[in-house]
Amino acid sequence: MTSKLVPSNPAEVMVIRDVVPRTITTLSVPFARFGRIKVGGRGTIVRLQNGSLAVFSPVALTEEVKQKVAELGEVKYITALDIEHHIFLGPWYAAYPNAKVLGPEGLPEKRKSQKNEDVPFAHVFTKDKPITSIDPDFDREFEWEYVPAHQNKEIVFNHKPTRTLIEADLMFNYPSTEQYSRTGESATTGVFTKIFGSLTNTQGAAQKKAIWYGISSGDRTGFARSVSKIHKWDFDRIIPCHGDVIENGGKGIFERVMEWHLDLAKKG
């Protein structure tokens, strides 16, 4: 299944880009859900003010990525932003064994059942026991919200110094133009991709409806509560795992997509 999801030649198709010089680097790759839907994939590296690195939703650890990491600093944190974004945790932890691994509840058990590499989790986010601190350096620069009401058990981070929201599947920004830019193929071709894209762009109301009637339907109140907390943060840029980076104006786009949930939170 993995071979159908991720590229066999990641070094040839990955886009390594400094979104914020010496602070935020994205690793964008083609990624086909079910082998057919071009959603794209993205890892994000944040360089903290003390020089350590936090990696979110890691993608393939190519030689070029290793070189970039070496230029930036030492990997101290590796986070799977939800139970789906964990494929490359093993290789990253093997290369940087001093890093703290973070992930949502259910992921350690899932990896064990799938016979993935043994990766020790330093912090597991749960609904019953919220994590209020990772360590002083990390806490100083990030705020986070665990969204257990999301079907994928999302963890969303805001890098306060750069006002950058980092998320996996909370919100998409189709099409995945950058992620397919080195493949020689369009990011929008294919019937299933077109259908999916119509539901996950940020231009109309389709994604708002998809989240309301689909993603959050199991616990809409809980989802709205988390969205309301995230909305209180000061962010402008949004880096999603799927689709293009929203370089600016992200807060307004977030408000539009999450409008119904924000309204529900106000009523509650």
UniProtKB/TrEMBL annotation:
Pfam families: DUF4336 (PF14234). InterPro entries: DUF4336, RibonucZ/Hydroxyglut_hydro. This is DUF4336 domain-containing protein. The lineage of its organism: Eukaryota, Fungi, Dikarya, Ascomycota, Pezizomycotina.
